[in-house]
Each structure stands twice: as C-alpha cells, then as structure tokens.
Design goal:
- The protein is mainly beta.
- It is about 5% helix and about 50% strand.
- The strands form two sheets. Strands 2, 4, 5, 6, 9, 10 and 11 form a seven-stranded mixed sheet that branches. It has a four-stranded antiparallel sheet with strand order 1-3-8-7, with no helix packed on it.
Length: about 120
C-alpha cells in the first residue's frame, strides 16, 4: 500500500508564497513506483469541484492548470520520493485544500491520495 503525506499548508497574505511537499511511503517497492509515476497536485475549494493544479511526469514534463500557470511551480526529488509545489503570487481564490495524487503506473486503475493540506490566502 502506498501512502502520500502532504505538508506545508497554512495562512498567507495575498501576494505571498507557500511551498507544499508530498512524500510517498509504504510499499516495499515504493521507489520504483514513485520514480515511474506521474504525480499530481489537485485542490478543492468549498462548494467547488476538485481541480487539477499541476502534474509532473517521470521525465519531469510538467503541466499546469490555467488558473495557476506562471505562478506555481511543480518539481520532484525521486531520491527522497517527494514532489513539491512552489506557490507564488498567491490570491484569495487559491484558498483550498490541496491534495497530492499518484496513479499506480503498474496497477491501473489503482490511484493514491493524500489527506490534504489547507491553504488559506487572506489578509
């Protein structure tokens, strides 16, 4: 079983920055699973659907949601089984619970979610 753990959320003023982290653990073969998988960040605001924020593939190809492109940066550190989301120029509309997600690259359609971390952008 794969576990994803997010951290780094909090309260920040508009225009500020936060860095979210997601660490994968649990399975005996977690290294090869993580190194092969595309990892995603999603977010869900109250009363809204969960939306894709950013994703990073095995070879570090990245993809961003329209609302965050140019302000957020996703990166990965395979040695530490971690993915990061650097969030700059934060806006109140970025307020949401942010979730780390990973589809198992060897056992489709198995997918893993973290418990989420709250990001609140407010003055």
């Amino acid at each position: 079983q794969v576990h994803l753990m997010e951290s780094g959320g909090g309260l920040v003023q508009p225009g500020g920055s936060l860095r979210l982290s997601c660490v994968a653990s649990g399975a005996s073969d977690i290294g090869i699973i993580f190194n092969t998988a595309t990892v995603n960040w999603y977010r869900q605001a109250p009363g809204k659907y969960r939306e894709l924020v950013a994703s990073i593939a095995r070879l570090e190809n990245t993809n961003y949601g329209k609302a965050v492109k140019g302000r957020f940066t996703i990166s990965r550190d395979n040695a530490n089984r971690s993915v990061y989301l650097q969030m700059d120029s934060l806006k109140p509309e970025d307020t949401a619970v942010y979730y780390c997600n990973m589809d198992d690259p060897f056992e489709a359609p198995k997918t893993y979610w973290g418990q989420g971390t709250q990001v609140t952008v407010s003055s």
